[in-house]
Every structure is written in C-alpha cells, then in structure tokens.
Automatic annotation (TrEMBL):
Keyword Transferase: no
Annotated binding of 3',5'-cyclic AMP 2, by residue: 270, 279
Gene: NDAI0A02730
Ranges for domain Cyclic nucleotide-binding: 86-201, 204-311
SUPFAM superfamilies named among the record's database cross-references: cAMP-binding domain-like
GO terms for MF: cAMP binding; cAMP-dependent protein kinase inhibitor activity; identical protein binding; protein kinase A catalytic subunit binding
A GO CC term attached to the entry: nucleus
Keywords: cAMP, cAMP-binding, Nucleotide-binding, Phosphoprotein, Repeat
Protein known as: cAMP-dependent protein kinase regulatory subunit
Family: Belongs to the cAMP-dependent kinase regulatory chain family.
Subunit-level organization: Tetramer, composed of 2 regulatory (R) and 2 catalytic (C) subunits. In the presence of cAMP it dissociates into 2 active monomeric C subunits and an R dimer.
Signal peptide (from-to): none
Record-linked Gene3D superfamilies: Jelly Rolls
Region (Disordered): 1-67
Length: 320
C-alpha cells in the first residue's frame, strides 16, 4: 500500500556490489528497556548478508513497526526532530511513514544502547538526554538532543563501529533497519551512498574509518567541468579541495608549463589549504571531468589522518 510514494524517495539499485557483516554475536543491552514490545538489540540476531549500500527497493514491502502516533506524540516529534536534517529532506508521505515507524524508548542513564562489534538493527534519534560514543574502550565524542546515531552498521552492513552509552536518562526514537534503508538511505543519506565507491577507492583516504568516510561524504559537493574549463587558477585564493571521480586535468604553472596530468581518483587543490598560500598552479579540465569538492573548513575537520599523507606528498616540494 505504500509502494508508489516510497519509490519516489528510493534510489533504484543498480549496484551489484555486496558486503556482508561478519559479526554474528548477539547484542546485549545492560539495562531492561521499559518500553513494552521493544527489545532494543537484546536476543536479536539480524541477518544482513548480501545487502549492498544501495537503498532497498522492496516493491511489496510493508513496515514491521508501523504504529500511528497519537496527537501528543506527533506534536513532540514535530517540534523535537521534525526539523532535523534527516527528516526535512523527505517528502510528506515518506516523513509521515518514518514518523509512524519510529518506536519510542525511555533509556535509563548508563544503559549500553549499542555495543561495538554487534550487528545493527536500529537507527536512533535523540529527543532528549546525552549519549557518549566509545571506540575500543576510549570515549571519542558525545551528543545530545536532535542528534542521531546507529546509522553506520545499517548503511554499510558493518559491525557497530562504536559503543553508545546513555550519559543521562534518554528519550530516544528508534527506526528499524528496513525502514531506514528503504526511506532514509535514498534521501537523507543519499550523499553517502553517492560518494561511497569514490571515497573507498581513493588511495589517499585508505586510512579513514567508515565513520570518517561517512562524515566526509556528508560534506562533499559535486561539480562537472567540460573540456577546456579552468577549475583552479594560479594565484587565486583557494577555498576547495578536489577529488576526481572521472575525467582528466592538466596542472600547469607560469614559466614552467605542464607539471602533471591528473586522472580518475587523483586529487588537487590541497596546497593552498594546507599552507594558506595562493593557488600554486592552474588546473584545467582536458576531458569532461566530475569532481567532488570539499570546502576549507571540511578539509581541516574531516580529512583526519589523510592530511598527513597530503603533506608528505606535497608536490610543490619537487618543482619550487
Ligand atoms: N567516532 C565515532 N566512530 C564510530 N561511530 C561513531 C562515532 N561517533 C558516533 N558514532 C555513532 O555510533 C554508532 C555506533 O553504531 P553504528 O556503527 O551503527 O553507527 C555509529 C555512529 O552513528
């Protein structure tokens, strides 16, 4: 019954690539969920093998957890998470569906909501309270009202990348795996789906974790340049870093001519951002070229260990 409106939001799946979660361990929740009928991950074994990152397209799919929300719940949802980026990209039918598939959870302080290494079954949005994220025993960050977590395992069919613990009593909304994949992957997480193959295949990004790659994908934009177009001009102020998805570009410098030719999976534009200097060369598309661009603030925040590799590979060291 939901078919026609869902199909507008789901990207059609053309990829045949699949990844399988290796973890099969049952997830444990260390504090009883007070919400009847909602088991969190407890005693749950989810089979996720054979799914790709592409959003699912189950033509005859009906959500398992569909419960019309009462007016009081709807009002709270609208004011707390209705304006969240996850939901404001949805058309009204999809938004209504997602909202009605959300399950309410009251989580006591100190509850382990997600355990690193487990399989994923739910995605969570925080209405109130704070949670912390623990990777390999170290607290890496925390988040509060309006944030969300638990998407990585559902997107990439990977084991949970972090343990998530309630720092305070929390009021959460949980979305089941299939509804997440069916609706949110094709809309709210579309950029991650779009850039996944590119980022995974870029040699300089190999040191990034799944989490790092996901955050990076959120910050990217796409541009297409036709043959002959100048992408970067020597002497200009640099604002973007570029990853080449496909195409070909030349790098030329006044007085030196052609320095190099760049192709698929190469990058450029890093020197001005790394050293805070003007553009050191001109980059021109010689074929139709599709690039993913990352702005200055994203470059500083999101490239993580890849920045060190960029510094080591600084090409200006060779030709200056
Ligand atoms: N630094 C981090 N590394 C990994 N996961 C994180 C981090 N910070 C927040 N998270 C969230 O913690 C979640 C744990 O479950 P997932 O791997 O499904 O998805 C993960 C992210 O949503």
């Amino acid at each position: 019954m939901f078919k026609s409106s869902f199909m507008d939001n789901a990207q059609s799946s053309s990829s045949s690539s699949t990844t399988s979660a290796s973890a099969t361990a049952n997830t444990q929740i260390q504090s009883e969920s007070p919400t009847p009928g909602l088991k969190l991950n407890a005693e749950r074994r989810t089979s996720v093998s054979g799914e790709s990152l592409q959003p699912n397209t189950f033509d005859d799919w009906t959500p398992d957890h569909y419960h019309e929300k009462d007016p009081e719940q709807l009002k709270r949802l609208e004011s707390s998470i209705g304006t969240n980026f996850l939901f404001n990209k949805l058309d009204s039918d999809s938004k209504r569906l997602v909202i009605n598939c959300l399950e309410e959870k009251h989580i006591p302080k100190d509850t382990i909501i997600i355990k690193q290494g487990d399989e994923g079954d739910y995605f969570y949005v925080v209405e109130s309270g704070n949670v912390e994220y623990i990777v390999d025993g170290n607290t890496v960050n925390s988040s509060g009202a309006g944030s969300s977590f638990g998407e990585l395992a559902l997107m990439y069919n990977a084991p949970r990348a972090a343990t998530v613990k309630a720092l305070t009593d929390c009021h959460l909304w949980a979305l089941d795996r299939l509804t997440f994949r069916k609706i949110l992957l094709g809309s709210s997480f579309k950029k991650r789906v779009m850039y996944d193959e590119l980022l995974k295949s870029m040699p300089i990004l190999q040191s990034l974790t799944t989490y790092d790659r996901a955050k990076l994908a959120d910050a990217l934009d796409t541009h297409i340049y036709e043959a002959g177009e100048v992408i970067i001009k020597e002497g200009d102020t640099g604002e973007n870093f570029y990853l080449i998805e496909y195409g070909e570009c030349t790098v030329t410098k006044e007085g030196k001519g052609l320095l190099t030719t760049l192709k698929d999976r190469d990058y450029f534009g890093e020197i001005a951002l790394l050293k805070n200097v003007p553009r050191q060369a001109t980059v021109t598309a010689t074929k139709r070229t599709k690039v993913a661009t990352l702005g200055r603030s994203g470059f500083q925040r999101l490239l993580g260990p890849a920045v060190e590799i960029l510094k080591v590979q600084d090409p200006t060291a060779k030709h200056d």
